[in-house]
């Protein structure tokens, strides 16, 4: 083979080689997966719910829901105050018909008398210590008759949770009643399951996270 | 004398191409091509090339109202193309005689983190990777030492005995260090006190993130991913419109809600009523009442002189 032929052959081989190299390089670049992302599961929509923890009597009435729990005289007899029974520690014995009621209002059992708030002569009404009679749908003044500073804060919007519009000129503001958040029989705010915390940068186990391990480490994720 | 039928003369052959120079050139060429391809590699991953319209867009403060109209239309189209949902994008201006203040009741906060997720949902934050504006710190009773704070707490139920919770988000400082360091004025303080970011003007240098003493600013290292079905279509230009890769974002007091008179999303979802928001210039607002009557004890890291518009207080 003479010299020009040799050069041509080398050139051709090199050109083909370069083309193949370029093709491989590009196809590899394109085919290489982007940085592996473990999808972070979406937060449960329960955590986005703006509803209060309880529903008040007024809410139930508005929603036209079952109010049979408040129909006292389907069991009790009118004009006959139900008797109160106390145990040896002066704690009230809750009748089994009212087993859902946990008496936890006030420390040291100081507030263990149903008729501190309920009207013994008309069970469908509430009463304050100064003799005012109030409906179930209007219980805030009853709470305020003992919790004055809290009522004052609530009236100023500093206690409780107003929602809607901060600017009264642009829209309505809704106020929640005491019993929207506090159970009157045990008013301490209930504890709850927290929403998931910030996701760690790497999955906690050495194994890469799968949908199953995400579920296991963050069961609350939907 | 040259030999008539012997070796060809040494020296350049015909066409001036020697094997050595050819090999050298081709080696250089290969290396060059490889380097070029490698440098272009990120472009292959990039899927939101700026349109000419977005690229040429003027600075927020220089946009005239008709130009703003066009920009908002452009954003609406972009969002619709990407998420298949027609949003309502507004450019809400600060209201006259309004200075926003946020108050947070540490006695009431139970650390349930609902605010964190309501914020993510409201503000179209990236889910993977996760971007959250609010961090809830858990601190042991009797201390306000942030060094003792824990934000990865995961008990069965909250509140836990012996701890209190302190959610931290953008403090909307009156003297914001993040604004001072921005080299392109992509972030500034508005007259109602909200520090905002023009996501189309941000160059992603992250100086503001470094300057913020509250770790309130978040950077989009990758393209944010928001599921189509969770997009909040009520958007604002300086607020919750979808962000791009390479820009900063942070809490903006839900500008799309608060400048329309509504409460922020984190407040409305709080089950304990720990969050309070309003206009400090209105003497009858909740926040005025709280600052007058409650034990407002800190602005977080107040010794730094940033003068936050975010107050922590106690009952009693």
Summarize this, please?
Chain A has 222 residues and is mainly α.
Spell out the blueprint of helices and strands.
The complex is a heterodimer of chains A (222) and B (316).
Chain A: H1 3-31, H2 57-62, E1 125-127, E2 133-135, H3 140-146, H4 148-155, E3 163-164, E4 173-174, H5 178-181, H6 211-217
Chain B: H1 19-45, H2 52-55, H3 65-83, E1 88-90, E2 100-105, H4 114-122, E3 135-140, E4 163-168, H5 177-181, E5 187-189, E6 195-197, H6 207-211, E7 218-219, E8 234-236, E9 248-249, H7 255-258, H8 265-269, E10 275-279, H9 286-293, E11 295-298, E12 310-314
Parallel strand pairs in B: 1-8, 2-12
Antiparallel strand pairs in B: 2-10, 3-4, 5-6, 7-9, 11-12
- Supply the number of helical segments of chain B: 9
Helical stretch count of chain A?
6
Q: Could you give the order of the helices and strands of chain B?
A: HHHEEHEEHEEHEEEHHEHEE
Largest sheet of chain A: 2 strands, antiparallel
Q: State the CATH class of the domain at 116-259 in chain B.
A: Alpha Beta
CATH architecture of the domain at 116-259 in chain B: 2-Layer Sandwich
Written as H for each helix and E for each strand, in order along the chain, the element string of chain A is HHEEHHEEHH
- Percent in strands of chain B: 15-25%
| Average pLDDT score of chain A | 83
Helix content of chain A: 25-40%
Instruction: Describe the main β-sheet of chain B briefly.
Output: 4 strands, mixed
- Using the CA coordinates, give the radius of gyration of chain B: 28 Å
- Specify the overall morphology of chain A: rod-shaped
Q: How many beta strands in the DSSP annotation of chain A?
A: 4
Low-confidence stretches of chain A: 206-222
Can you describe what's shown?
- The complex is a heterodimer of chains A (222) and B (316).
- Chain A is mainly alpha-helical and 222 residues long.
- Chain A has helices spanning 3-31, 57-62, 140-146, 148-155, 178-181, 211-217, and strands spanning 125-127, 133-135, 163-164, 173-174.
- In chain A, a hairpin with a 5-residue loop joins β1 (125-127) and β2.
- Chain A is rod-shaped.
- Mean pLDDT of chain A is 83; it is low at 206-222.
- Chain B has a domain at 116-259: Alpha-Beta Plaits.
- In chain B, β5 and β6 (195-197) form a beta hairpin.
- Chain B is globular, with a radius of gyration of 28 Å.
- Chains A and B meet through α1 and β3 of A and α1, α4, α8, β10 and α9 of B.
